[in-house]
């Protein structure tokens, strides 16, 4: 295993450098991520820790900024060649004439999920009729996500079920232990906290709602067209990093790589392990698309996002060419197909 020759991490306003000093020429690549977590962007840190970027001739510098909009701003300003934004902000940016292109679907499954205690035996959202669904806040994104799932199951808020804001993570665990809620809609980090508190959970999110995928790797069209070798090398290393961290035999080493990226996040090893398991599950494609390899973007999932943003008023009108927002051109090469 190749050790990272230089890592500097300032977690508050985080600038984190990954790479190795070698005799061969290295191409510098700055990657903007929307928060300082290392586990949430695990394939990057696994690829760095195992020396995969170095083997591709890349010196990768990760800069943590505040949210997807800041990621896209960094890309637009030329401060980052690659970013890891969400799909919604990418489409909104394209409506403002930023030619950002999604090239790798890092989270092919939704970052939110609908969870029940495993002991209940509930396997279908329709079984939540008459029950209380815990959420972080009354107006959080998880509320709209859960409302759509339950509505699709034929349930109406206030009649078939009710929401109860119980906070995130630890406070949600208390709500479960006090039997204040029967289920919980939250992000993968919330699920990891609940599991680390000893609450056994089963996810009952229908597969079609998992299609509202999360953050992925993006760049500008100009950089992609001018530097195809960099894009190929970066993605190839990323896939290898994903494959490495997906192997349970590598869990401890993977957590060491993550701790190098964010030492504070690695202090609670049990929680870090639970979060890593949740991240790997969300980064693993569904059976319907597994044969396409890591990074593949189903066009119909982009269509769902596009329609949702119009329905919610984020986009005033449809984009002229939705297909220009993403490309799968590199996926086969990255996956060695």
UniProtKB/TrEMBL annotation:
Biological process, per Gene Ontology: thiamine biosynthetic process
UniProt KW keywords: Signal
Keyword Signal appears in the UniProt entry: yes
InterPro entries cross-referenced by the UniProt entry: NMT1/THI5, SsuA/THI5
Keyword Nuclease: no
Signal peptide from the UniProt entry: 1-25
SsuA/THI5-like domain boundaries: 43-247
Domain of life: Bacteria
Protein name: NitT/TauT family transport system substrate-binding protein
Species: Palleronia pelagia
Classification of source organism: Bacteria, Pseudomonadati, Pseudomonadota, Alphaproteobacteria, Rhodobacterales
């Amino acid at each position: 295993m190749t050790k990272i020759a230089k890592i500097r991490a300032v977690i508050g306003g985080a600038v984190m450098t990954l790479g190795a000093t070698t005799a061969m020429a290295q191409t510098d690549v700055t990657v903007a991520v929307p928060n300082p977590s290392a586990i949430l962007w695990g394939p990057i840190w696994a690829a760095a820790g195992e020396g995969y970027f170095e083997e591709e001739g890349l010196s990768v510098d990760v800069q943590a900024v505040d949210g997807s909009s800041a990621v896209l701003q960094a890309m637009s300003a030329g401060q980052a060649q690659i970013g890891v934004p969400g799909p919604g902000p990418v489409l909104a940016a394209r409506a403002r004439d930023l030619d950002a292109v999604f090239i790798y679907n890092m989270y092919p499954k939704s970052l939110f999920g609908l969870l029940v205690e495993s002991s209940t035996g509930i396997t279908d959202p329709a079984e939540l009729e008459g029950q209380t669904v815990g959420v972080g806040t009354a107006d959080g994104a998880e509320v709209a996500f859960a409302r759509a799932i339950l509505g699709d199951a034929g349930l109406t808020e206030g009649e078939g079920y009710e929401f109860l804001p119980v906070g995130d993570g630890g406070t949600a665990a208390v709500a479960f232990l006090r039997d204040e809620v029967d289920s919980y809609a939250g992000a993968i980090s919330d699920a990891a906290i609940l599991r680390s508190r000893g609450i056994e959970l089963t996810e009952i999110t229908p597969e079609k709602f998992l299609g509202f995928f999360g953050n992925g790797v993006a760049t500008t069209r100009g950089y992609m067209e001018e530097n195809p070798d960099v894009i190929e090398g970066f993605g190839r290393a990323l896939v290898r990093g994903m494959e490495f961290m997906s192997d349970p035999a590598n869990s401890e080493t993977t957590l060491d790589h993550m701790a190098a990226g964010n030492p504070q996040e690695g202090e609670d090893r049990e929680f870090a392990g639970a979060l890593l398991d949740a991240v790997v599950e969300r980064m693993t494609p569904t059976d319907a698309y597994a044969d396409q390899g890591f990074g593949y973007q189903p066009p119909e999932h982009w269509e769902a996002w596009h329609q949702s943003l119009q329905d919610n008023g984020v986009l005033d009108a449809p984009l002229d060419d939705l297909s220009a927002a993403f490309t799968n051109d590199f996926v086969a090469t990255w996956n060695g197909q």
